[in-house]
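It is worth pausing here to work through a concrete case rather than discussing structure prediction in the abstract. The textbook approach is simple: state the sequence, then state the predicted structure, then interpret. We follow exactly that order.
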Amino acid sequence: MEETSFRFAASQAYGDVPSAAVAVAREGDREFTTIERFVNNRAQPALATLKATEKRLVALTEKVQRGIELLDARITLAIQTQNRSVLDAISQTGRSQYRLQLTVEGLSIIAISYYALGILGYIYEGLHDALPLTRGRDAGGIGAAGGAAGVSCHTPHQAAGTLETL
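Step two, the predicted structure:
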């Protein structure tokens, strides 16, 4: 477009040169055709066509520019829509990962509790084997060993001794 504008401007300038040269010659009013009339009759229609073509080209350029702007707006809207769908998918993935994390943490708590109870069970069994006396569940609250509230014997020798005293 820029090159065409330069050409139109140059043509306009060159079209003005013959008119200026004829005006300097100052031909008088004569009955027959003068050089000025001849140049004006030949050059002016061409210059008028040049100006009209330049106007049409400017109008066409503006229309094309508006079309480009509309296409740009449509492309921008499509990209924004696509970006929104990508962000929604990322958001959904984040929510899913959060739910999965909560589930894993809950299962970890259950597993840790299970193993902790197992360790406590081993500690209890170890204490039970090391200490022969444990709390009993007699109806009167007095154990068979003779009066200690809730204490009973669990080793075979203690049980045999308890039976002998009865």
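Step three, interpretation. The chain has two domains: 2-130, 134-165. Strands lie at 134-135, 151-152.
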